[in-house]
Design brief:
Largest sheet: none
Number of helices: 2
Shape: elongated
Helix content: 40-55%
Radius of gyration: 25 Å
Strand content: under 5%
Order of helices and strands: HH
Number of strands: 0
Distance between the termini: 74 Å
């Protein structure tokens, strides 16, 4: 009886570990670029265009902003 309960507990633990690993692989942040492009639609054609209002950026931080995104 006790060995059966231990076996069931070990099996449940193994299934839980397998499920955790499988889910973590689906949510990983590091992947080949082709996977990220497919999953998130990261293509140059549909990238967001960033524009900053010069007046809203503090003077001491303006040197950190690339020149191409000022409007």
């Amino acid at each position: 009886m006790t060995s059966t309960l231990i076996l069931i507990a070990a099996l449940a633990f193994a299934i839980g570990v397998y499920d955790f690993v499988r889910r973590s692989r689906l949510r990983r942040d590091i992947a080949p670029s082709s996977d990220l492009q497919k999953q998130f639609g990261l293509y140059a054609e549909n990238r967001p265009i960033l524009q900053l209002d010069h007046a809203r950026v503090p003077d001491h931080l303006r040197q950190l902003v690339p020149l191409g995104i000022w409007r």
